[in-house]
Specification:
about 190 residues, mainly alpha, Arp2/3 complex 21 kDa subunit ARPC3, about 80% helix, globular, transmembrane, membrane, transmembrane helix
Amino acid sequence: MNPMKNYWLKPVCVEVSEIHTRFGTAEAATRKMITIAFLSTLSAIFQSIGGLLPVIGYLISPLATAPIVLCTILSIRSGLTAYLLTIVLLFFIQPSELIVFPLSTGLLGLGIGGSLLYLKTRLSAVLVGSFCLWSGILLLLYVFRFPVLGPTISSTFNLSTIAIVYVFSFFYSWLWVEISRYFIKKISKVIT
């Protein structure tokens, strides 16, 4: 088999199913709620750091994706709950991030987590994640006229901008799939 085809199409992370099954059957309802609340709080803190600490905060704020990915592999319901709870927390902590999180880092986390859980291949996780991020960025740019990519990117409709944003979204999603795989393997070793 072609090594590149094998890289993209083989199941990515068998530990996802193990974590999902263990969380769904073994954990008490109280522990599930605490886990979701803790991960949502982490996501809100990471996302809000961008506004609280200019420069260094922008390097830390993308980490808000990781807790959403983890919650989503626990269960889709947990992922959606964490996503919504993070939005509520951001309303109190850093309201300026309310428009960015739901349509970028949060949406990316839901897409990658759900595709790792159900579609299981690297290619599907990268494509779903990139589509979620791409559509969120386009909504921010063209519907809300929010300069999510900085002032140099125009908010007037432009096909080359749309293509560049997709290429960026694809590579950013690929990076997050690999980061997610790494941490899922580490977490799996800890809980088993």
